């Protein structure tokens, strides 16, 4: 039985770690004054949503009960995604609603701050390893995605039907991410003398990478859009967890010893990370 690293199951309230998109996940908490009596049978996971009336229209706020949640937390997630209110399993819906209403102004401001969604379409410019690439649909029936020099910027030539363009670009980016991550992880694992069991690619909006104690590292494929030192830092970060399953001083010392650009990479992710999540979302 594979014991997941704590990070894997964190609730949003404790997501303030380096590789999450923390500046997009700002939240409020209120401590439960008392163990509120359940108004309904506590269930895990989704429990519906609240409608919040704002001057921009009605915003649906998804409601989740979480077994380890001790507070009410409000999170603004993926660009197109609904905000989420997480509550303790035994919290009350009335308290959750009051909490939401108290923080409605904040929530509306956060939604206004989210980076605009950037669809992956013909003519759009999407970064690959930090360099903008112009997407061009070739109309060719065969072939997949190829990179070519363009007049101003490199061009991503995409074959196939228009409705498959987004999928093809993402598949291509995932393959490129896989290649770079395999190399970077291998390099850092050799330096630290640790064994990596598997590398997985994901598309989570809440974190850039994670590590299970069984030795499986997971990464967001979106890292391939960032400059290469960002991907290298994430690889170093997750590999270092195979030594130190925490975010203590020893862990950070270890990361910095194999990745001297750790500080710059964390600052970059904080500032630019949300933009990467807005691409093709
Ligand atoms: Zn970590």
Task: Name a few traits of the molecule.
281 residues; alpha/beta; Zincin-like; 2 domains; five-stranded mixed β-sheet; four-stranded mixed β-sheet; globular; disordered N terminus; binds zinc ion
Structural commentary:
This protein is α/β, with parallel strands linked by helices and 281 residues long. The chain has six helices and twelve strands. It has helices spanning 93-102, 104-113, 165-192, 228-241, 249-258, 262-278, and strands at residues 29-31, 45-54, 57-66, 71-75, 84-88, 125-128, 131-137, 145-148, 155-158, 198-202, 209-211, 216-220. The strands form three sheets. Strands 1-4-5-3-2 form a five-stranded mixed beta sheet. The protein has a four-stranded mixed beta sheet with strand order 6-7-9-8. The protein is globular. The model is unreliable at 1-45 (pLDDT under 50). The structure holds zinc ion. The site of zinc ion has 6 residues, from helix 4.
Strand and helix map with partners:
Blueprint: E1 29-31, E2 45-54, E3 57-66, E4 71-75, E5 84-88, H1 93-102, H2 104-113, E6 125-128, E7 131-137, E8 145-148, E9 155-158, H3 165-192, E10 198-202, E11 209-211, E12 216-220, H4 228-241, H5 249-258, H6 262-278
Parallel strand pairs: 3-5, 7-9, 10-12
Antiparallel strand pairs: 1-4, 2-3, 4-5, 6-7, 8-9, 11-12
Helix pairs in contact: 3-4, 4-5
